[in-house]
Fold this protein.
Amino acid sequence: MLRERQELLERLAEWPPVLRGSLRKHGNKCGNPNCRCKDPEHPVLHGPYHYLSHRYRDKTHTLFLNETKLRFATEWIANYKRLIKTVYRLSEINFRILRYHYERLNGPPGGAGDGKSGKGSGERDE
């Protein structure tokens, strides 16, 4: 368990860029009053266009994404989802260590501990 925790911590130290948000796409109406997008019966919207929706400080911000921005946003959102899964896994490991193996922890609470407990070397970390 301590080894797995250390591996996760090392992986976090080299994490790629992350972005919390949602991708969406929708059509728009233009400003031309004679355009097909203004047809009252059957409007044909321009697009669809890609947008990033991001919530920060109780406000939702929307950003238009061109193809380049879309590629980055897609990758960074996937990185964010993987990061959250990794943090949840790390938290679960830390819970189990505190519950079942707290005697193995050495040093201050912020440290990872060295896994030495003075017990036999044949004991497993899980």
Summary: Residues 113-126 have pLDDT under 50 and may be disordered.
